[in-house]
Amino acid sequence: MMLNVQKIDQFYGSSHTLRGVSLEVRQGECMALLGRNGVGKTTLLQCLMGVQPVAAGTMTFNGKDITRLAPHARAALGMAYVPQGREIFARLTVEENILMGMATMSGSRARDIKAEIFDLFPVLRSMLSRRGGDLSGGQQQQLAIARALVAEPKLIIFDEPTEGIQPSIIKDIGRVISMLRNRGDIAILLCEQYFDFARELADRFVVMSRGEVVAAGTSAEMDGEHVKRHLSV
């Protein structure tokens, strides 16, 4: 099991934001985390990356307890995060943004951007000297994913990668996620509001509502209409 989360709780002040959340993500699969805005999805992802502390429960990554581990230490173990809103460095160039993703690597591996990155996102090759803030939203999303992939992660976490993105770029992002899943050597946790996008990519699903897991199962086991009721406003 690449990522194993067991009964984690989290609080913002007196607000109980995560309530006994458990999930597992396996190597070579895509797990979709679904739920409408405000149910705790991003909070859960931030807890997984160590940005937010948990009040109870355990998290293990590739057999190692990471429950109290700092974010940079989790990244060094092979966890990568593509945050909601992309959070690229607007004043750095595209090349500098990508190289920032290699900060946990050492030696020659930290100097060379693999050609595979530009095979996945050809538009970035011609934009290496442009500032990240000058890119369109869709191009910034591709840059954020490229920045995560250059670290050669064992697990990559996507927080709503289709939000505010034009349809043509959404198709490109879906193609890349599908390719990564089919490689079989990486685990993917895909946080989404849109069931139709996730259904094309995910092997298993976890649905959240009000800080709790309310449904879980494989693609074959999930009732699309039931899931969509938890996603509609």
Describe the structure.
The protein is α/β, with parallel strands linked by helices and 233 residues long. It has one domain: Rossmann fold, CATH 3.40.50.300. 33% of the residues lie in helices and 27% in strands. The chain is built from nine helices and ten strands. The strands form two sheets. Strands 6-7-8-3-9-10 form a six-stranded mixed sheet, sandwiched between helices. α3 (94-100) packs parallel to α6 (137-149). It is globular, with a radius of gyration of 17 Å. 39% of the residues are buried. The mean pLDDT is 91.
* Broad shape: globular
**Which sequence of SSEs, written as H and E, runs from N to C?**
EEEHEEHEHHHHEHEHEEH
Reported for the largest beta sheet, the result is: 6 strands, mixed
Low-confidence stretches: none
- Number of strand segments: 10
CATH architecture: 3-Layer(aba) Sandwich
Structure classification: alpha/beta
Number of helical segments? 9
CATH fold description: Rossmann fold
Number of domains: 1
Strands of the widest sheet, in order across it, are 6-7-8-3-9-10
Q: Regarding CATH, which class?
A: Alpha Beta
